[in-house]
Every structure is written in C-alpha cells, then in structure tokens.
Amino acid sequence: MTSGGNVGSPRAGTLSVQHFTATPSYCSKIIELSIDELLPSDSPPRMAGENTNYTRILAESATALAPIVVRRATMQVVDGWHRLRAARLRGEKTIAAVFFDGGPAEAFVLAVRLNTAHGLPLSLAERKAAALRILRLYPDWSDRAVAAIVGVSPKTVSAVRKRSAVELPQSTGRIARNGVRHRADPQARQRAAEMFAADPTVSARKVAAATGISVTTAKDVRKRLRGGQSPVPLRHPASLTDSANRNDSPTPPLAQRMITAEMLHQLRKDPSLRFSETGRKVLRWLECPLDDGVDLAQVIGTIPSHCAPRVAEIARRRSQELQRMAQLLDQHTRGAFSA
C-alpha cells in the first residue's frame, strides 16, 4: 500500500451537493490495486466510449498516471478508465487508486464532476445528457449546483430542466451549491415582496435569509416589483389558489400595493424629480392619500353623512385628473419611442 493523503470518509447515501461542488474527497489513502480486478462502470458519463488515441498518448507519456477512483462496493472504475487502459498498454499489473464509498447515483455524479476537472473533456452533448440524468436523480438541486458539476452554464441546465419538466419529479425548492435548501413556493415570494415594500432599501441577501428563498430569487422579486409586475410569475401553477381564481386579475391587491410602493420609492430617488419644483409637486400628487392596506370601509364609516357627497365628488375628480395624466404620459412615451 502506498501512503497518501488521508481524507474524510462519508458513508454511502449521505453525500450532499456540497461534496460534489467542492474539491472531492475520498474514502481511503492511495493504494495499489490489481488491474485485473477492476471493472468498467455500468453507466459512464462518456457515451462515446474509449478514445484509443488518448489512451495511447497516456501510455507513451513519461509522466506517472494520477490515481484512479474506484467504487469499493463493486470495484468499478468511477474515474480514470483511460488511465487504466494506458497502464495495461504499458504492461503494468497494478495501478494507483483511491476508494469511493458511495452509491451508484453518487458515483455517477462524482464521475461527471471529475471529468470536467481534468483529463479528456466530455462533449457538450455528453454534459447535457449528464445534466439531465443528475436532474432526474436530484431534482431538488439548483441549476447553478448542477452546472458547477457538469461544466455548463446555469442557463443550459435550466433549458434542460424545462425541456424535461414532464419527466422530472416536481420539487418545492432548490438546494444551492452550499447545501442550503431554498423554497420555491409563491408565498415565499409574496413575503419577500412585502419586505421590499416595507423597506425598499433592504438588501436582497437579508430578504432571502428571512424568507427562505435564494438571493437570486429575491433579486428577481425586487426587479419584478420595480417593473410593475407581480412578484409571482404567472407561469407558476401554485400562484393560483384554485381553479375559480384563474380568471381573476393576475396581480392581487396586496401585490398591487407593493408594486406601487416600490415604484414610488424609485421615483423619489430620481434627481430629475427631486430637484425641481414641478417634479416635487408630481411626487406629492402621486403619494397615496391613505396608508397601504387601510380598511376603506372603516374610513368611510367615520366620514359624516353630510360630507360624504363632496368627498366622493372630489375623489372622482382626482381620479379623472390622474387618469387624464396617465393618458397624456402614455401618449408622450409612445411619441418619444416613435421619434
């Protein structure tokens, strides 16, 4: 037995996404194994099989071959089949190796991870196929986590996930590269939107930590609010509480108030409005006269009956003026874009 670095030994079935996205660790020191005892993997990530030219290059190299990785339970090669074949060509009887104590699914993920880090690279088609298989095995893993293992962009993994949505198990969240599970339910997005509405200056990281969503999702919620959209994407089936609500307005009242608050916050920060008398007057016009979430029925109940007609008429006039202002602004915007 040749001495080598002693590493941790996670038991089979207990490995997390962090194990694969970080520097891999194994379950033994470097040892010498008989080449005749080793078997090929049942389902290697390399679909094209052995590249004989690459094997010959390795065999003719004067450099010592790096240790291969072998799954202890089956003696199958997880990583290093070309090195094993090269050792055979050299006439060697043993090869340096380290044992891996994981299940078949974990062995596959590790094989993909190692093939993206060294040796003969996997083709793009092989990496996409590997991404699909990992998503089938671990549907809770985030696109970024899978991308880090497979060696493609998160957008590519997202496209693979969307194309295969019918056959992939449904998940209520994603496990990020650091092993933290982030919820994907629309209620978490709504809570994030409420936090942004209450304090538009709050950081996305703080909102993510408080609501259990990822920082990326928190930033998406903030972006959607600033763009006047609902914090929950319409394509999200869980955003509809039941079939009776499917014909309702896509943006509920609470979301509308949060969107308005965020848009007003952005306008208040705009120097072209803040530092001109007309701009400040416009901001005052746009300020909501009542607090968000106020019970209008309770407010109306406090208005004397003899004042109600005049209050109603003023409200209608203000509403008409603001509607007219919105129409003129729309016309101005369309004219600016067509010029």
UniProtKB/TrEMBL annotation:
Region described as Disordered: spans on this chain: 223-253
Matching SUPFAM superfamilies: ParB/Sulfiredoxin (SSF110849)
Chain intervals with Polar residues compositional bias: 240-249
This protein's name: ParB-like chromosome segregation protein Spo0J
Coiled-coil region: none
Originating organism: Nocardia tenerifensis
Recorded superkingdom: Bacteria
Residues annotated as domain ParB-like N-terminal: 31-116
